[in-house]
Amino acid sequence: MNRSFRTGRRQFAAQSAAALAAATLPGALQRAVAQEATPTATVAASPSPDSGETRVRFTVGDVEIIVLIADNPTSRDFLSTLPLTLEFQEFAGNEKISYLPRELTTEGSPGTKPLTGDLIYYAPWGNLGFFYSDGGSYSDQVIPIGTVETGLELLNELETGPVHVEVVQGEATPEANM
Asked: Which of 35, 97, 152, 178 is most buried, judging by how many CB atoms fall within 10 Å of its CB?
């Protein structure tokens, strides 16, 4: 399937889902809810024993973006695909997206309203998305994977070349240096 067709289909579905949500969810509930890949190996990832939290590094050239991973079945399945190399592209003026080598499980994972700095999994197309501006309304199809801890201002660099993605192993976390 060519990329422009897939992109157009995703835009249509996202707009349709947003319109359906707006029409069916009461306003108070909407406000309350607000808050081409190449695998290189498969490694079982686990949370860092020091912090009790898992971080993932996205590297392109000299640029590093560190993401604190959410605790849900989809994010754990994402971790099981690492390390891998991804290609990112611009999408809809608020997101950098990349397609994973396989679909992730979504059973038991909550939906979300994506906000600036969120890394999400969009279930209908099986892609990751980094939001660099708030992403609209809540959707069960948008699963939180994590939140950017460092490098939010560098998200544009993701489009400059292959992005290596790996679990951060045994390094000091940003808040540990404070």
From this structure: 97
